[in-house]
Backbone:
């Protein structure tokens, strides 16, 4: 494989050096959550031991320093995704929190009875249910982009879904089940040609390839900290400035207001308007450390290495004749959803776990996609840049053991 | 045989097995040999919801004795169901409700029945107990 | 002072042993956020280094262990506040997140045009704005319990606010500005006698005295992790089971659903119905460690020690003739809001910061309370069980320096 | 005197001062001696919103030269305002907009003017520049 410094990188993630059931851990559940680099672990440790204080509203030394670190974290995120201004970066509790914010605020300000929202069959529940709830409140409805047998969006069908009642398109950048990398630039272009805004769910994308929100021209972009080697409880919402300015606030509380009286409350400026209460400022700073770590390696290098891993795994897994793969797009991330014939995914997962191979089984919070393929779940192995070809081999060996056991 | 004796029997069987592969093998065999549930009960009404594998369960009271039948689309889950049925079936509701299921720990299946595991096994166990409660109430009326 | 092991306790909080501007840090901004005990710092460090994995939905060893720790954390919180069942404990992003959840779900399911919600003049913006937003959506209105000159709730006026349109009472347990400990049991009793439910905002209470939600008989209780020596980005909502069962969900996403189709989504059982997406599970486990730490000392002992501190500080501060105190209830926490005559709070804060005394100045997210007292802000010194009488003295010395400088 | 020379002057004054207490004392004096803003401008229209202290600011253009006046309810803030006025007042909009304010760092007031400090000082500085921009635009029409 390429000259990727994999040995060094694995040392940056202490958890990887671990024995489970007497076997070295092969952590292939990165689609669910990712492991943490030392740099981020130590940053959080240092805050807890030396720096913690309330941000924005206190006058003391610690508070001043913490506020600076928090606002620097915002700038780090801004640069990481190429946003024009740091005030367009809103810290939330996660991708789910970000989507709920947009779905609520869009719902309250733009949705009327009879309006339509376009989603796709491959969305994660977090990009379905908030829109369903908004539609239910407002009497609007969902239009769904179908998925082909290869696990790609049917782009022709997509173009035909627009009507003069379409108010929003919300689709995933990369599928958490199929790995498909969607043609999001094209999706945005088409939506804009109909005058419709687009939210891109980057929860499975932003950690795997360089993302530039200006280049994508999307109206909103969301992702989760814990899936990009950062802390839990932190997420990001990027939005175009004029849209964020127009949207009504989502949660009410401290810091998001300008003036409060019982008669009338006026709201603070961006980004604070959308950050109610004490935010997860420690999580935000930890996230920035993870992003800085990734940037120090280079997202382009990470992407290339993961593509090599993907190609290797594709080859090896397709050599198992009893394995049926879901998601066979040429343009996909190193995510593999499959079923061994006559073996329930749960049985597969249980057995390979005992061999130190950590995957996920089930519906992956994408029930409509399961229904599309007429299945109840898959085994999902999701790789990232600290995984190795050796771990691919171990997965394949473990799957062969499953087939032997169940044979 | 009293429930506690059946549990002892199962513990002894598992003691003779080696590490996880033999145990899983045994559960797989149990699953394969579990008599098919009546097709009439393999539907949503008898389904126990769990994220991972589907489990169908039915229970009947005959002569004061509870008879359980179950099925699952996952074979290890089905094997565990077979064990639970072996322990409970043929006993009175009162006996079932009084039983402490120490064998689960003893044979290393605790993780499968931890309340946080979203595999439906805990729900199955609860549902077995609910049936016993329901039949006990029925007997007392 | 009593036999409280203050020396040992201070060693449990590494940040306290710190020099700012050449002076030892006197951290008196605990109302804004609290410092972290080693036990919690190390628990989080260990998760990041050895244990992290996605909860609930993966089949692997790490995931299993993480899920167990997360659900144990729920049980720890349950026991800490005396809740009947762990499924009544919902992890949120903070007190603000918890109140927004209740205000939204109550708003959607119970509020109609003309309905009324009772708050008090001393509420934090986080317990005002969410209700204002719900009222605005539904055409309901707020009724406000006045505050006396001593900074207590006017209980007679409270009783007179009820009408047959009253749907909810939401008041703070302890005032973040005045320190007043409100007669919450009585508040609940009166509301219940009118058939009205009560939310208690425990953000400033639960860290200072033993709280038992069954004894209080409140319908909802909320608090923030970061104010009770826990991580940022985590909070708690407790609710009575039948109410939580009835309330519609707030955010949509992964884990909070049972079945999803584009036509219809059914929701998961408690507590998951209210926990959309990947929760801050690491934060929840960290919070539980902080609670366990507090329990190991004993909330009753903490309360007693803080009362002694309060009495000492009251004595010393009242010896400064130019100091006007806001909040003089006999039943108050060790929170002191004051203004030095002819000195702007901000000037006071800036100057004493240079002497190593960290406080907060401003409106403390309680503008209506500021208006009530006809002021624009106060200096607030908020103590907790790791503070000392020596730090009270340092505060007083620093205030005298301010008076000299400004004289 | 050009803006850069005024800044040099201020830096020298501060260099002769000891640690923070003398500096704050100096700012307090500056604040006390700042000529009162015309009462007509001490209202919400001229208020610069900040969480901590209130600042009122006005600017007038006379003979191509900007004249600022300001007030604050906090005396240290007012002292800083006095410094800013001393630097900017008496210059053309173009000079004001071209100025780099290195003196702020040099005299240790950076923390007061960090963009994250919610004390209104940054807003005041921005507002001073907005006035200059507005008057520049006016001159060009
Ligand atoms: C009484 C009270 N309620 C609610 C809150 C909001 O808490 P958080 O900002 O952690 O959500 C605070 C915090 O300042 C508070 O003091
Ligand atoms: C595509 C996609 N969107 C959204 C989410 C939700 O992310 P979170 O649970 O971190 O809020 C996920 C996580 O599983 C995801 O894979």
Residues:
């Amino acid at each position: 494989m390429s000259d990727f410094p994999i040995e060094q990188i694995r040392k940056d993630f202490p958890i990887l050096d671990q024995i489970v059931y007497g076997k070295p851990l092969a952590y292939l559940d990165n689609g669910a959550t990712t492991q943490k680099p030392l740099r981020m672990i130590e940053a959080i440790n240092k805050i807890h031991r030396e720096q913690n204080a309330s941000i924005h509203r206190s006058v003391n030394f610690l508070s001043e320093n913490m506020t600076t670190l928090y606002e620097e974290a915002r700038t780090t995120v801004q640069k990481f995704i190429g946003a024009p201004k740091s005030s367009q970066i809103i810290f939330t509790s996660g991708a789910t929190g970000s989507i709920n914010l947009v779905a609520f605020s869009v719902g309250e300000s733009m949705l009327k009875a009879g309006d339509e929202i376009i989603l796709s069959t491959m969305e994660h529940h977090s990009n379905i249910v908030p829109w369903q709830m908004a539609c239910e409140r407002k009497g609007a409805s969902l239009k769904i982009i179908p998925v082909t047998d290869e696990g790609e969006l049917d782009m022709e069908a997509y173009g035909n879904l627009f009507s003069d009642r379409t108010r929003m398109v919300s689709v995933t950048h990369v599928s958490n089940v199929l790995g498909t990398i969607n043609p999001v630039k094209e999706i945005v272009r088409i939506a804009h040609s109909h005058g419709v805004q687009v939210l891109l769910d980057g929860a499975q994308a932003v950690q795997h390839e360089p993302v530039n929100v200006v280049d994508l021209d999307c109206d909103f972009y969301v992702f989760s900290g814990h899936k990009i080697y950062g802390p839990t409880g932190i997420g990001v919402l990027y939005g175009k400035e004029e849209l964020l300015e127009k949207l009504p606030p989502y949660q009410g509380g401290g810091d998001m207001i300008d003036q409060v009286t019982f008669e009338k409350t006026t709201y603070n400026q961006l980004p604070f308007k959308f950050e109610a209460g004490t935010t997860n400022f420690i999580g935000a700073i930890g996230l920035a450390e993870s992003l800085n770590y990734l940037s120090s390696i280079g997202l382009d290098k990470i992407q290339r290495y993961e593509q090599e891993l993907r190609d290797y795994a594709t080859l090896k897994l397709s050599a198992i004749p009893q394995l049926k793969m879901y998601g066979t797009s040429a343009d996909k991330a190193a995510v593999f959803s499959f079923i061994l014939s006559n073996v329930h995914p749960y049985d597969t997962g249980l057995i390979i776990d005992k061999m130190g191979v950590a995957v996920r089984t089930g519906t992956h919070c994408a029930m409509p996609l399961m229904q599309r393929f007429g299945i109840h779940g898959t085994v999902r192995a999701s790789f990232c840049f600290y995984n190795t070809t050796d771990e691919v081999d171990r997965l394949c060996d473990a799957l062969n053991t499953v087939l032997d056991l169940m044979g | 045989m009293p429930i506690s004796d059946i549990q002892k029997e199962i513990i002894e069987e598992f003691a003779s097995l080696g590490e996880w592969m033999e145990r899983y093998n045994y559960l797989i065999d149990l699953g394969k040999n579990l008599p098919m549930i009546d097709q009439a009960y393999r539907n949503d009404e008898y389904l126990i919801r769990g994220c991972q594998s589907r489990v169908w369960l039915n229970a009947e009271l005959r002569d004061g004795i509870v008879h359980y039948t179950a099925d699952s689309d996952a074979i290890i889950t089905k094997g565990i169901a077979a064990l639970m049925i072996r322990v409970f079936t043929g006993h009175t509701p009162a006996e079932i409700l009084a039983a402490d299921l120490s064998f689960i720990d003893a044979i290393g299946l605790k993780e499968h029945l931890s309340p946080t595991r979203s595999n439906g096994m805990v729900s199955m166990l609860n549902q077995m107990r609910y049936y016993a409660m329901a039949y006990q109430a029925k007997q007392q009326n």
Q: What stands out?
A: Chain A has 14 helices and 17 strands.
